Amino acid sequence: MSGRNEGKTILITGGGGFLGARLAELILAKDPKAAILLTDIDRSPRVDALAGRVEFIRADISDPGICRDLVGPHTGTVYHLASLVSGGAEKDFEAGLRANLFATIHLLEACRLRAEKPVFVFTSSIATFGGRNLPDEVDDYTYQHPQNSYGAAKVAGEQLLNDYSRKGFLDGRGVRLPAIIVRDVANTALSGYASNMIREPLAGKDYLCPVGEEMRIPLMGIATATRLLHALGTMDGALLGDYRSLNGRGISPSAGEIAAAVAACAPPERPLGSIAFRRDPEVERVVAAWPRVMHGKRAEALGLPGDRGIEAVIREYLAGLG
Ligand SMILES: NC(=O)c1ccc[n+]([C@@H]2O[C@H](COP(=O)([O-])OP(=O)(O)OC[C@H]3O[C@@H](n4cnc5c(N)ncnc54)[C@H](O)[C@@H]3O)[C@@H](O)[C@H]2O)c1
Predict the structure, then answer these.
(1) What is the reported pLDDT for 5?
(2) What are phi and psi of 114, to 5 degrees?
(3) Both 41 and 143 in a single domain?
(4) Protein residue closest via CA to atom 5 of ligand 1
């Protein structure tokens, strides 16, 4: 924690989610006395696992009053992770707007009105890239033209983060995350196959992959993603200049390469489920519209964490299973 924010509260929205709970664990591992307030619309078993070590408030942050209650004068850092991810926001436009746009605006406003220039970490997404002229490989400065409502809300969030930082209301840092693996529980993200094809076979279950073997999307391991969020929250924000969001450093194994890596990493004593491929046109249509490769040169230049390869991520996952 930077000196300015020492002893202040760390607010994590979406704290019951995949990244939020893991981030809280990482912060506590570094500083067991850290004052962490987790908030989420649902209390998940991930929050139960943190009981006694964090404060938890169940709340819907698409309500501006709730955001003002959650952010106080002692809020030093906000990690804003709450979101209704890609598939969910496509199915329910209004719910997506509430979770992905209104909640971000209300939280930024609460920070402007109530806290003393907090650090604000925003999780944007690879889903902000898209459109007919999308190159196969994107970098930090590729223009963003999302083809889904989730991505559109994230672009708006990135721009607001720039503007609130420019005005000096807060100290914003944003990252466009690739798909994070290996999810413990499936959510509505259409990139979920990359997690499922690792988690399920290693749990001894057969898995039917909804995309072809050649499909490639940028990925990042959960351990690296949480270290990245923490690094963003504790670095000198001025290093980001006037463009506060950068690309995460993705790795891009094909679905076939992930399957091969699962087979190569599986411990012999563990029953291993099979992986078969059957294309689901709906999933392929959305996933094929994302970039194949995501370069994170700004993150690299700043020394922010990145993965070494898919096998390393799978071995890390297996180590976590014990
Ligand atoms: N996991 C990924 O692959 C990935 C990739 C790119 C970007 N991101 C971004 O990273 C962040 C965290 O992702 P995650 O994988 O932990 O997602 P997640 O779905 O596991 O968790 C998000 C949490 O937000 C909560 N939430 C949704 N609407 C809410 C509301 N109105 N009020 C309060 N809480 C609400 C949900 O209950 C959920 O627990 C999100 O902003 C997501 O868009 C994630």
Answers:
(1) 67
(2) -120, -30
(3) yes
(4) 179
